[in-house]
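Sequence, please.
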C-alpha cells in the first residue's frame, strides 16, 4: 500500500511540474512580448542581438510542450508570437537586422515562418 501511495504522489508531482513548465513557457513569451513593446523603440544592434537570442530560446521552450497545449493556449501563443514578430519586423524595417551578423538570419527565418513572408 505504501508503494502505491508513493507512486501516486510521484505521478501527481510530475503532472504538476509539467503544467508549471508549460505555463512558464507561455509566461516567458508573454513577458518578452511586453519587454519588446515597452523597450524595442530604443534598441541598438546589441539589444536586438540579445532579443533575438532570447526569442529563439523562448520559442524552443514553447515548442517542447506543443502537444500539451490546449487550443486556447495555442491561440494565445500565436498572438504573442505574432506580437513579437511585429516588433521584430519593425526593427528589421529600420535596418537593425541588416547589421546583425549570425543571429539576423535566424531571426529573419523565424519571421518568415511566422508571417509567411
Amino acid at each position: 500500500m505504501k508503494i502505491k501511495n508513493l507512486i501516486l504522489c510521484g505521478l501527481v508531482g510530475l503532472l504538476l511540474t509539467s503544467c508549471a513548465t508549460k505555463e512558464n513557457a507561455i509566461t516567458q513569451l508573454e513577458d518578452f512580448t511586453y519587454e519588446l513593446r515597452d523597450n524595442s523603440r530604443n534598441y541598438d544592434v546589441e539589444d536586438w542581438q540579445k532579443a533575438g537570442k532570447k526569442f529563439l530560446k523562448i520559442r524552443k521552450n514553447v515548442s517542447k510542450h506543443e502537444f500539451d497545449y490546449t487550443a486556447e493556449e495555442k491561440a494565445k501563443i500565436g498572438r504573442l508570437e505574432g506580437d513579437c514578430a511585429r516588433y521584430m519586423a519593425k526593427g528589421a524595417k529600420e535596418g537593425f537586422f541588416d547589421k546583425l551578423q549570425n543571429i539576423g538570419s535566424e531571426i529573419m527565418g523565424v519571421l518568415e515562418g511566422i508571417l509567411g513572408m
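The CA atoms of residues 90 and 116 lie 16 Å apart.
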